[in-house]
């Protein structure tokens, strides 16, 4: 039976870097954030978004992600409404992807909101990527060209590292990428030996 590894960490922690390393080792990786971005533009999702938020997040009848981000990251109730649309759709998408990868001994589900969305319940083992918040903030500012306040708004809508780490089976310190790769490979060896 395929073991599901939940891979999580706060924004800017380096989840995708670690996930890409796992892919290079031949392990199938499901990137929840990337899949959610595609799901966001499906006709069924657009219909739900219009019903929930009206036309305020659309420009010329096209979804405006910047307007959506500004709306939800400044309003917890609106974020909750968006998550109620996206998370169930991602869950179904993951289940379909899992069937396609059923012959793999391990698969990885990468998700920033693994705990918040309760999708950790589908995981057999959870690995959390951890980095001091100051480093995460700088990484996201450089990567996404966001302001400090925009990054903090996103961080404040996620669990803290401590909350994630306390519920995880393994914690990878990703301040030094070579050491993080080694820690990740050691985790995979341990998981395969169970």
Task: Identify the notable features of this structure and list them briefly.
194 residues; 5-stranded parallel beta sheet; 9 helices; globular
Summarize the topology.
Elements: E1 3-9, H1 15-24, E2 29-31, H2 32-39, H3 43-53, E3 58-59, E4 62-63, H4 65-72, H5 76-100, E5 106-110, E6 125-130, H6 133-144, H7 148-155, H8 161-166, E7 170-173, H9 177-192
Parallel strand pairs: 1-5, 1-6, 2-5, 6-7
Antiparallel strand pairs: 3-4
Radius of gyration: 17 Å
Q: Which term fits the overall shape?
A: globular
Average pLDDT, all residues = 94
Q: Unreliable segments (pLDDT under 50, ≥5 consecutive)?
A: none
Number of strands: 7
Share in helix: 40-55%
User: Widest sheet: strand order?
Assistant: 2-5-1-6-7
Helical element count?
A: 9
Given the helix and strand composition, which structural class is it? Answer: alpha/beta
Helix-strand pattern: EHEHHEEHHEEHHHEH
